[in-house]
Structure formats: C-alpha cells, structure tokens
Design a protein that fits this description.
The complex is a heterodimer of chains A (320) and B (348). In chain A, α13 packs antiparallel against α14. In chain A, 73% of the residues lie in helices and 0% in strands. Chain A is an all-alpha fold. In chain B, a hairpin with a 3-residue loop joins β17 and β18. Chain B is globular, with a radius of gyration of 22 Å. The chains are: A mainly alpha (320), B alpha+beta (348).
Chain lengths: 320, 348
C-alpha cells in the first residue's frame, strides 16, 4: 500500500488509543479523588500531567493545577495535539485521508465519534457529568476498535492501524506506571495502595488483578500484571507480542528485518524479566528505558515503511 | 508535444452536456473533455433510488450503469505501455481531500481497485513513474488524473504546483506511462472551439453532427459581435476558458449595470467570450419542500473511449434548484437525479 496511507493509518491508531487512554486516566483520577479525599488533589492532577509528559505545555496555558484546568486542557483544548478532542480530530482526519482503505462501518464509527465530540454543550456536559462523558469517549473508542476488528480484512491497512494502537498503548502503560514507580520499591502505605487501585482501574485491570492475586494490592504485583503479563491485553508485554505478530505479517519494508529484530529483542527481554529484579534495579529507570525503546521502534517503523523513495525536493527535471 | 497514445485515445472520459430546447430538440450545450466529474452521482443515485423505490425500478427494464468501473478500468488499461503485460498498475491522481470532487476520486479508486494517490506519492526516476509504497518504490503504468493540466508536472508547467509529479512529462514522452485524459484535451472543450465542432465533424468524418449546437455568436467576428451586443439582454454570455458555471452572465436576469460591465469586457477582449441564445431548458417535476414543482434540468451522458467507444446508458441529470434558475452546476448549488435509459421491450 501507499506509504502515506500506511502512515495515516498508523497515526489514526495512535490517536485513537491516546484519546481512550486519556479519558480513562482522567476518569479514574477524578473519581479516585472523590473516594480518597481531596487533600491530595493538586498532586494527583500534577501526576496526570507528569505521566503524559505535558506539564510544560500545561504551564504555558494555566497557572494553577486544578481539576478544572487539567480537564479543560486534556479534554476539549484543541490548541495542542494531546487532548481528547484533538486526538479524535486527528484520528478522523487521518481516517478521511485513507477513506478507501477503511470499511464503511469503521469510517462511520470514527466519524460519528468525532461529530459527537464536536456537538454543542460538550463543555457543560463535562462539567456536570464527567464520568458519563469519559465513559462515552471510552466506549466510543471501543466501538471504533470493534468496528475495525469485525470488518477490516487482515491486510496491511489493518496491521498498520493496529500497530499504531499497540505502540501507543504500550508506551502509555509505561508512562502511567513510571510516575509512581519511585515509591513502588518499599513501603505499602494506605494512600499508596489507593493510588495503585486507581492505576489498575485506569486500564480496566482491577478484576484481572483480583482474579490472579486476590484483593491484597502490592506494587510488585501491579507491575507484574501491567508490564509482564502475557494474558492481560493492556500489559506492555502483551502489546509488544501483538505488535511483533503484526509486524511479522507485514509485507516488504526496506529495513523491516532490523525493526523486527529490535522489537523481538525487547519482547524477549520482558518475557524473561523477573519483577523482583526489575524493582531491585529501579523500576523507574527500567520503565523509562522500556518506554524509550518502544518510542524508538515506532520511529523505526516510520522510517522503514513510510519514508520510501527519494524526497520530493531532490528531483531535477531530466530532459529527454 | 510528441506524445504518442495507444489507438489515439486521448480523451478516455468525456462528459457532454445536453439540453432540450423549447421545440424538444436535444442540443449540445458544452463539451467536458478535461476531467469531467459526476459519474459517482450517476451510480449513487441509481443505487439510492433502487433502495428507496424498489418496486418502481423493478417495473421497468432499466439498462444498468453499475458496470461503469469495469469499463473505465478496461479503457485505462488499454493505454498502458505495451511491454507491461496483462495486469498494468492503474492509479487515480487526486489534488487531495480539499478538492470538491474528492468524494468522487475516492469512490472511483475504490470501485476500480486502484490506489488513490496524490502528487507527493509518485516519483519519477529514469523517465519511469513509481509510487511510494510500504514495500518501496513500485512502478505505475496508467494514471487516471483528476488534476488540471497546468498542475500535472511542476518541472514543466506551474513550478508552484504541489499537486503534480515532477518529471511526469518526461515519462509520458518516453512512453513509460499512460495518462488519462491526455494533456491538452482542454483545447478541444474550450468554448471558443465549440462553435467549430460541427464543421470539424463534417471535415474529419464526412458526416453531419447528430446533435446540433446551441446557436452561438463568435464575439471576435465584428458582424456577429455587433449583432450580439445589440441583444445582450436576451443572450447568455460565457467566458471561453472557464467551467463550473463561473463568470456566466444571463442576459434576461442581469441588471443594466451588469450588462454594461459585460459589454465593456467583451469590447476589451472579444476572444475571451462567446454569446449564446438562451435555451429554455426543459423542466422536470422536482420535490421542493414536500411538493412537486417544475425545475430546469440538463443531462450529462458519459462517453468512455479506449479500444472501443462506449456511451454509458444513463447519465447525470443536473437540476437547478432555485425556482426559474437555469444554472445547474453543482458548484452553484445544483442537484442531480437518477436517469434511466430503458432497454427495448421484450418481444413475445
């Protein structure tokens, strides 16, 4: 397929995932605070910004870290590319560029998600019923993913879309965990446990956790589930395995073998990782290393599949 | 320009605008030989009507139009470089999503099973056209372009064009790629050529045209110009080099001031204009706010040329939606209607 189309699909996948993950994170932060008391409010919202690495961008627009400011910044603010509205807008824009590669059901799901988010009264709705709002963004994104899974043939268009989602999700999970990682090593205070609960909730992992480990929550086990679980679909290892499969099935790609090797090496490293060792050596560093590795793989996917041929500027007219 | 075209098929897709005058005679209003659009409406209107009124469609023997894409693909493949075997790679070249006909470009690409490309997706190396794909550069054999001539190759034509492919002209002249429609088709559908088409048919084919023209004044001929200027308020004045209904002055509906401006423009540059008798376009019952009202229409049938010539049995009927308006162009707010050609009744 055309390199430009592949790139649009890959980024449509990334933006969709970004919108969903951001909605999840905001939802659990908001409700986590309602349950856990408001004393930590400022810190919790600051951690959201840190996790998304958007603190700097936020400071340029808002003076104080409050729930209202962070929500306004991360939901409807389209002056940067990381808000939910901007992400959905870009996913839809990318989808429109490759409309002929999308099934009609997928396109309609994507387009109606976009239109719904642009409808009047969104800001009021967000203020009045944040949970309803976030839940709708989440289920809308799932509808798009479902339409893709059920109607797209397993060809390259599908693979690039899915690769984008998987890469973004793996990176996001690393980011979420990294923010609290410094405090993961030792003590298990009540408020720490509360945070890990929120974290599990953010990625719909609480039930999986309870089934596997019971109700007692420890940072070690949270990390084990969210980084190293081969079964849980939002764990880093799971995403890398799935990405490896999709990358392996893609046709061609000038330097594809070297991208595949890098991904497989990373996956294998996690596969045989012991969570105790990971904590011992410092979870924060390990998570940041993993995150950076994933980002590098995403970049290599771009240069390998999307930047084919000479750059257009280089052409000089050859007379015949 | 030294570009040879297989079986002389330079204009693979033509759309001829027909009108029916007050006597019920069909006349050619204008030719569209560059990048005529509207076929997607023909196909979508037909599909929509079959869904909404299945019983109506079933009662008549309507000749189908849904084979259009396969006919178009056959035409396009027929101009591929000979040495490229039986499965030449066809692409549709669009200016991009901001073009008003982008929907149609994407629609046709989907139906043709062809990639929808923009200029930046194509590269020319050694006079050969390639597409940038995820597997590297892949050769392109035929380009169905929906980009105007002047934008096709910035290395030769407009250097500021970002819609085209630098070096495409070289590839065309080397015979390494087919382009539909050929460059320069716009000369043939220029409104200044239109008045001479019946004479061209007589000269080259030795036949009389089956469909006659609308009576036209050549404003660069002094006598005709005088006659036209005297009756400007009754005539339609069109700029020769424009399309899409832009720049047209409808005499009977124009203000004195507009007519005066028009007169000055004609005198300043007579070659830039033609004047035509106003055709009382036929009207057709049209649903307006839940009621049937008469609205003016014209008809654009499509003609495909390749190894053979095929007139699509159907066409784009365009309708002027404001009451009394004669301007049917979709760019001016016109609508469209499904249009049937009935098959011969079955003989029992």
């Amino acid at each position: 397929m055309l390199a430009r189309h592949a790139e649009d699909l890959f980024w449509a996948g990334r933006y969709l995932e970004r919108a969903e993950d951001t909605a999840r994170l905001l939802d659990v932060t908001y409700h986590g605070l309602l349950e856990g008391g408001a004393s930590e409010a400022g810190m919790a919202w600051q951690e959201v910004l840190d996790a998304l690495q958007l603190s700097h961008l936020f400071r340029a627009r808002h003076r104080h870290v409050t729930a209202e400011a962070v929500e306004a910044f991360l939901v409807l603010d389209e002056s940067h590319t990381s808000s939910i509205a901007a992400s959905i807008g870009r996913a839809r824009e990318n989808g429109r560029n490759v409309r002929e590669h999308l099934s009609t059901e997928l396109w309609e799901a994507l387009n109606s998600t976009y239109l719904e988010l642009r409808a009047e009264g969104r800001a009021e709705e967000l203020a009045a019923h944040p949970h309803e709002f976030y839940r709708r963004v989440r289920s809308r994104c799932q509808l798009v993913a479902g339409a893709a899974a059920e109607t797209m043939p397993r060809l390259d268009a599908w693979r690039f879309l899915l690769l984008g989602r998987l890469v973004e999700r793996a990176e996001m999970t690393c980011r979420l965990l990294r923010v609290r990682a410094p405090r993961a090593a030792g003590d298990e205070h009540q408020d720490e446990i509360h945070y890990w609960l929120v974290m599990l909730n953010a990625v719909s992992a609480l039930e999986s956790y309870a089934r596997r480990f019971g109700a007692e929550i420890t940072p070690t086990r949270v990390l084990e589930l969210l980084v190293l679980s081969p079964e849980f679909p939002r764990s880093v290892l799971f995403c890398l395995r799935a990405a490896e499969t999709q990358l392996g099935a893609l046709e061609g790609g000038v330097a594809a073998p070297s991208v595949r090797r890098a991904l497989s090496r990373m996956r294998a490293e996690l596969e045989y990782q012991d969570v105790a060792v990971l904590l011992e050596r410092g979870a924060e560093d390990a998570l940041e290393r993993t995150r950076r590795g994933i980002a590098q793989i995403a970049e290599r996917i771009e240069t390998c599949f999307f930047a084919t041929g000479p750059s257009p500027e280089r052409h000089v007219y050859e007379s015949i | 320009v030294g570009i040879r075209v297989p079986h002389g098929a330079r204009c693979l897709v033509a759309g001829i605008d027909l009108v029916r005058d007050a006597d019920g005679t069909y006349r050619v209003l204008e030719d569209n030989l560059r990048t005529p659009s509207g076929i997607s409406y023909v196909l979508e209107n037909r599909a929509a009507l079959a869904r909404v009124m299945p019983a109506l469609s079933a009662r008549h023997r309507i000749r189908p139009v849904h084979h259009y894409a396969s006919s178009l693909l056959a035409s396009l493949q027929s101009i591929a470089p000979k040495a490229r075997g039986s499965k030449p790679r066809v692409v549709v070249l669009t200016p991009g999503i901001f073009n008003s006909a982008y929907f149609e470009h994407a629609f046709l690409a989907r139906q043709l099973g062809a990639e929808l490309v923009e200029g930046r997706d194509l590269v020319v190396e050694s006079h050969t056209v390639y597409a940038r794909t995820t597997k590297g550069l892949e050769r392109v054999d035929v380009i169905y372009r929906r980009v105007d001539d002047a934008f096709v190759d910035p290395a030769v034509f407009r250097p500021d064009s970002v819609l085209g492919v630098p070096g495409l002209m070289g590839a065309l002249r080397a015979g390494n790629v087919g382009l539909a429609n050929s460059l320069g088709c716009g000369v043939a559908d220029d409104k200044a050529i239109y008045p001479y088409v019946p004479a061209l048919i007589r000269y080259y084919l030795g036949e009389e045209a089956i469909l006659s023209n609308v009576d036209t004044y050549l404003l660069w001929e002094p006598e005709q110009r005088e006659a036209a200027l005297a009756r400007l308020h009754e005539l339609v004045v069109k700029p020769v080099a424009a399309s899409g209904g832009y720049g047209i002055v409808m005499g009977p509906q124009a203000t004195d001031e507009q007519l005066e401006i028009c007169r000055k423009e004609i005198l300043a540059d007579p070659r830039a204009w033609i004047a035509q008798e106003l055709v009382q376009l036929s009207s057709h019952p049209t649903v307006i706010d839940g009621r049937l009202e008469p609205r003016h229409i014209d008809l654009r049938p499509f003609v495909l040329s390749g190894e053979r010539i095929e007139v699509v049995p159907g066409g784009l009927t365009r309708v002027a939606l404001p009451r009394g308006s004669f301007i049917v162009n979709s760019s001016q707010g016109g609508g469209s209607k499904d249009t049937w050609v009935l098959a011969e009744p079955e003989l029992h």
